[in-house]
Amino acid sequence: MAGGVLFAALPAHAATTTGSHAAVAGGSIQVNIDELRQQSADLKAKANRLDQDGEHEAADRARAEAQDIDNQIQAYLDSENNV
User: Fold this and answer.
1) Strands laid side by side in the 21-24 sheet
2) What is the dihedral angle through the alpha carbons of 9, 15, 16, 20, rounded to the nearest 10 degrees?
3) Where is 32: in which H helix or E strand?
4) Which of 12, 11, 29, 32 minimizes the C-alpha distance to 21?
5) Which is it for strands 21-24 and 29-32: parallel, antiparallel or unpaired?
6) Which of 27, 29, 22, 23 is nearest to 7 (CA)?
7) Cα–Cα distance list, 19 to 3, 5, 23 (Å)
8) Mapping DSSP to helix (H, G, I), strand (E, B) and coil, where does residue 52 land?
9) Distance of CA 61 to the CA centre of its chain
10) pLDDT, tens digit only, all 83 positions of the chain
């Protein structure tokens, strides 16, 4: 699933925050932050490879997708801290 983001919905009483997982929206969704960070890093590496190959527009798209994931991570962490 290249570039996709996986979400696993759990009942509110089952969602907990442990290690690199963030419970979001009052505990209704659990997100693996480490997995999202890895996806972002993979996209940034892909962007660098694309730039080296002269595929600058594709590299920009990969960087934009990585930035979207980084923004999601920050939003999840902010949400977790405000629960």
Assistant:
1) 8-9, 29-32, 21-24
2) -10
3) strand 29-32
4) 32
5) antiparallel
6) 29
7) 23, 19, 11
8) helix
9) 16
10) 344 444 444 433 333 334 455 555 455 667 899 999 999 999 999 999 999 999 999 999 999 999 999 999 999 999 888 76
Q: Which two tokens stand for residue 38?
A: 């890895």
- Altogether, the residues listed in the chain come to a count of 83
Report how far residue 29's alpha carbon sits from residue 51's, in angstroms, rounded to the nearest whole number. Answer: 36
Instruction: For residue 19, give the 3-state DSSP assignment.
Output: coil
Contact status, residue 15 vs residue 32, Cβ threshold 8 Å? no
Which residue in 7, 2, 1 sits closest to 62, CA to CA?
A: 2
- Predicted TM-score of the model (pTM): 0.66
